[in-house]
Amino acid sequence: MPSVAVKLYSVFFKFLLKHRLQNRFQNTIDEGNGGNNTFGVTSRPEETIAAANPSFTDGVATKDIHIESFTSLSVRIFLPDSCLSDSDSKFHPNSRITAQIKKADLERRNSYGSPGTVDPSTNPESNRRSSYGCSLDADSLITKSDIGVYRGYSPSADKCRKLPVMLQFHGGGFVSGSGDSVANDFFCRRIAKLCDVIVLAVGYRLAPENKYPAAFEDGFTVLNWLAKQANLAECNRSIGNARGGGGADIKKADMHRHIADAFGASMVEPWLAAHGDPSRCVLLGVSCGANIADYVTRKAVEAGKRLDPVKVVAQVLMYPFFIGSVPTRSEIKLANSYFYDKAMCILAWKLFLPEEEFDIDHPAANPLVPGRGPPLKLMPPTLTVVAEHDWMRDRAIAYSEELRKVNVDAPVLDYKDAVHEFATLDMLLKTPEAQACAEDIAIWVKKYISLRGHEFSY
């Protein structure tokens, strides 16, 4: 059984959650229409937010990006220090960076990390921002106040380590939670280090300001954005290589480079351009985020080659927020379980689904309804994490069983004496169970993100 501390915190947590859900439901009724805010919100005032930190002080650097002009959709990038090879140790905070760093050594690198002396007096373009958004001036690369800060400097191809990319969707019943909350920040840092991946924590729009399918569409928008980033980065690299040509080709390449620099400076995300490998993409969803991850995975399967070079190779569903009209055994036995009981979750679904569409057998809520495309046999490997004291567990297990029936690798990790969100809730993040869950996820994920010839298996 869960500890006394967990039980007491669950009572307090459920009291606050019920109060907040009822207030939002009442505000929706008073306003007459709770889904008319197109821009939307991605965080609530009660959330404690962790500031982005571009340094590798704890092994992971972070930055926030607002990726859509017309909505509040954003992502937080978690970049582990393993992306830097030994040759880039002068940008690593754990190395002994001192004031004796040779300025000439920095000046020998241009925006792409290739050799070449830069003299501002003879080359006015040396102060222009590169297509990766990095100044070529050595003083702007590293200053006394920037020691250990990774500015998006792009190493040369032979020194650049590409990492898989993981899209992470936080929990909160579609109405709360945040991609940059303290708890989610801690969890994503842990996953980035254990799995050795770049994590993109998606700050999707919350209900009731933005009802279904806003959060689901935001997830797929981020996947499309990742594909565009990969294509823009490849385009810039191709144009950069074209500069090596001769004769008339040089002027043509310079003209194209000028266009690419002007366009790419504001479009290409340097951390992903330098270190992201979208052909090894994993989706991870927590609670309601698992519903979003599953939706985005299905859309990726339907899109096929249109998402190239992005390829979803696996997904992880952590205690998914599934429900249905025909109750399962756990839904009957554990209806009043810890933290998220069934009554409150139904209220959250009422806040998320439009009134005319409300149905707990909605395809967003019940993964076992017929006609929910694409065919399950086309789904990528799917790891499902469930907890013993979670009323949603049986439906998640049933979905995993359906995947296995069509020969999809779909194991279930079942944690004893665990509760819903046992590995991601703020109070429980530092428990041995939470650490073990993250490690188990890393073991499984690495089977599908390891490079060919270096596969990781049990």
Automatic annotation (TrEMBL):
GO molecular function: hydrolase activity
Upper classification of the organism: Eukaryota, Viridiplantae, Streptophyta, Embryophyta, Tracheophyta
Pfam families (UniProt xref): Abhydrolase_3 (PF07859)
Domain Alpha/beta hydrolase fold-3: 166-423
Keywords: Hydrolase
InterPro entries given in the database record: AB_hydrolase_3, AB_hydrolase_fold, Carboxylest/Gibb_receptor
Organism this protein belongs to: Dillenia turbinata
Regions crossing the membrane: none
Similarity comment text for this entry: Belongs to the 'GDXG' lipolytic enzyme family.
Domain of life: Eukaryota
Segments of this protein annotated with the region Disordered: 108-132
PANTHER family the UniProt entry points to: ARYLACETAMIDE DEACETYLASE (PTHR23024), CARBOXYLESTERASE 11-RELATED (PTHR23024:SF639)
Protein name listed in UniProt: Alpha/beta hydrolase fold-3
Segments of skewed composition (Polar residues): 111-132
